[in-house]
């Protein structure tokens, strides 16, 4: 039974463990939403760095719009873990990416905290099932993986470990939504979660191409910025390729697109396109499409692209090479 | 010696081979820049489809801004290949993706055209070295691969085949730039070129994840749209990971990022990170960074992201799920 766990909308005080780019980035985002924030780092020198990161982020957060009462003055720094977590309504942990360090840290936090306050880990490369292994009350520990910079990007990937209670996962999703994030609830744990797996596949192909002198880093980046990048700010590949299939949609796209051709385009061979797999994609594409026609979606894509490209032309020559 | 090849800025009449999504998309973009355009397709019924694609694209092209004198009335349709190409200043071919069909088509165009007018192929999956194999004057044939939708996206990947003259590649790059595109000159032919190889690696990882029930199509798309997608509209991975390396930049990032960890994040294993490879990336990152500090670039990234996210919030609930 949950005890001492506030309702997601009643969270007032948040503790961020770690004063680095991710921890301080989380802190900046929470401050902008009007929360009180405690940042803990075992290194006292992290306080200066944390304040610089928050100050830098604040420029963008003011443009995005601050919540009523939001202030950079509402952050407190401490090196003491017990002090940091004992009164927290929620803990976002962004410590070092080593499972032994995290296991000890979670056991210590667990011992210092009311029973059921949720603790979320920003980890990219570890599983919650491993992190929670040494704690007395692992049921309230979840993965809450943000996307850099965490004060701007909406995505938070949420999933529990083997010992996590479903109620903690649902609570975390609800809380992140209250805090203005896009909570993506995963069905199962997988190393690298979702977004980083996709990025890693692309990055590995990039490394192969540069290694083989097939492309330079500048050519790689140009192909992204001037090519598929702007599209991916609007729609993901499943909906985009559903549109590429025309009126036949994703089912037509998967059957038409001969894997034996595309296998030559990457070092990662495609899995067999079974009928069962086609149906999984086709059903997902239908859900993504909703009640919109292919023409409506194409027009929507183009309208959004025009807006992005106009903005891009303004920043171009600065961000883009 | 080039004969009958106009200077890139003197091109007036362009022939687009193929009246499908790509061919008609090219035609729309060229019309918006004020060119006369001939569209050829062996299927007479393609004319109606071509005009619908141009009409749909025109809505966005008007917002982006038309060149003086630009008009949809300046397109002519024909089923006759000789008629289509005989007076062209430039040919953009977007026919079927079959090497035997393209070889015959290029030989026929070659015979009907003045010696040195450049012919560019939109092919995604074939190499120009194969396409040009049956032509008498292959030296003026290049790859000019666009990104969908070709009337909006700036990217055109340009490279010659084995028999292509360097002057044709340079001419094509110059012409595309005059026509408002971002010409990305490649150093060598590779199947899938650059952007599609990167997309294919990511798509294959997506297919594996859906197959293994690690993620649904909706979860995949959410992870892109709310996560790394918006970033890729601003900077490519090489510059982004250079920033992720902090003051140590790309060199620190590559050495710090243990490949044995990341190999578990994708089915595509990473290549060995040799010192030589680190230097290739580090030199490229330095060129991408130019004379800007890491802090300047981070601030620029955030400023651009704020603009994109504000636009995204407007289209959200329509494009995004």
Concise structural overview:
Chain A has helices spanning 21-32, 46-64, 81-85, 99-112, 128-131, 166-178, 195-211, 217-232, 237-244, 249-256, 259-262, 275-289, 294-315; strands at 13-17, 36-40, 75-78, 90-93, 119-121, 141-146, 155-160, 182-185. The first copy, chain A, is an alpha/beta fold and 321 residues long. In chain A, β4 (90-93), α4 and β5 (119-121) form a beta-alpha-beta unit.
Fold and architecture overview:
Chain A has two domains: 178 residues, NAD(P)-binding Rossmann-like Domain (Rossmann fold, 3-Layer(aba) Sandwich); 121 residues, no CATH class. Chain A has 13 helices and eight strands. In chain A, helix 10 runs antiparallel to helix 12. The C terminus of chain A is likely disordered. Chains A and B meet through helix 2, helix 7, helix 8, helix 9 and helix 12 of A and helix 2, helix 7, helix 8, helix 9 and helix 12 of B.
List the SSEs and their pairings.
The structure is a homodimer of 321-residue chains.
Chain A: E1 13-17, H1 21-32, E2 36-40, H2 46-64, E3 75-78, H3 81-85, E4 90-93, H4 99-112, E5 119-121, H5 128-131, E6 141-146, E7 155-160, H6 166-178, E8 182-185, H7 195-211, H8 217-232, H9 237-244, H10 249-256, H11 259-262, H12 275-289, H13 294-315
Parallel strand pairs in A: 1-2, 1-4, 2-3, 4-5, 5-6, 7-8
Antiparallel strand pairs in A: 6-7
Helix pairs in contact in A: 1-2, 9-10, 10-12
């Amino acid at each position: 039974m949950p005890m001492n766990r506030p309702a997601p909308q009643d969270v007032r005080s948040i503790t961020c463990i770690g004063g680095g780019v991710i921890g301080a980035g989380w802190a900046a985002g929470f401050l902008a939403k009007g929360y009180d924030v405690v940042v803990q780092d075992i290194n006292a020198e992290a306080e200066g760095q944390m304040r610089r990161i928050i100050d830098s982020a604040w420029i963008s957060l003011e443009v995005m719009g601050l919540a009523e009462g939001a202030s950079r003055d509402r952050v407190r720094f401490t090196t003491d873990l017990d002090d940091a977590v004992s009164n927290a309504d929620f803990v976002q942990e962004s410590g070092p990416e080593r499972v032994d360090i995290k296991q000890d840290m979670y056991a210590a936090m667990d011992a210092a905290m009311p029973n059921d306050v949720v603790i979320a880990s920003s980890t990219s490369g570890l599983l919650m099932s491993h992190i929670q292994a040494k704690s007395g009350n692992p049921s309230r520990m979840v993965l809450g993986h943000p996307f850099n910079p965490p004060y701007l990007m909406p995505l938070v990937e949420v999933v529990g470990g083997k010992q996590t209670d479903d109620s903690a996962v649902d609570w975390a999703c609800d809380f992140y939504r209250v805090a203005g994030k896009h909570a993506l609830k995963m069905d199962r744990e997988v190393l690298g979660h979702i977004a980083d797996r996709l990025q890693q596949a692309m990055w590995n192909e990039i490394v192969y191409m540069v290694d083989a002198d097939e492309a330079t880093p500048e050519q790689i980046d140009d192909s992204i910025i001037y090519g598929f990048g702007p599209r991916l700010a609007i729609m993901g590949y499943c909906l985009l390729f559903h549109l590429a299939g025309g009126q036949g949609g994703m089912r037509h796209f998967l059957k038409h697109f001969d894997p034996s051709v595309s296998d030559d385009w990457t070092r990662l061979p495609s899995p067999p396109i079974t009928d069962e797999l086609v149906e999984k994609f086709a059903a997902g594409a239908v859900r993504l499409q909703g009640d919109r026609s292919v023409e409506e979606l194409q027009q929507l894509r183009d309208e959004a692209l025009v807006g992005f490209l106009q903005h891009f032309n303004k920043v171009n020559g600065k961000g883009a090479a």
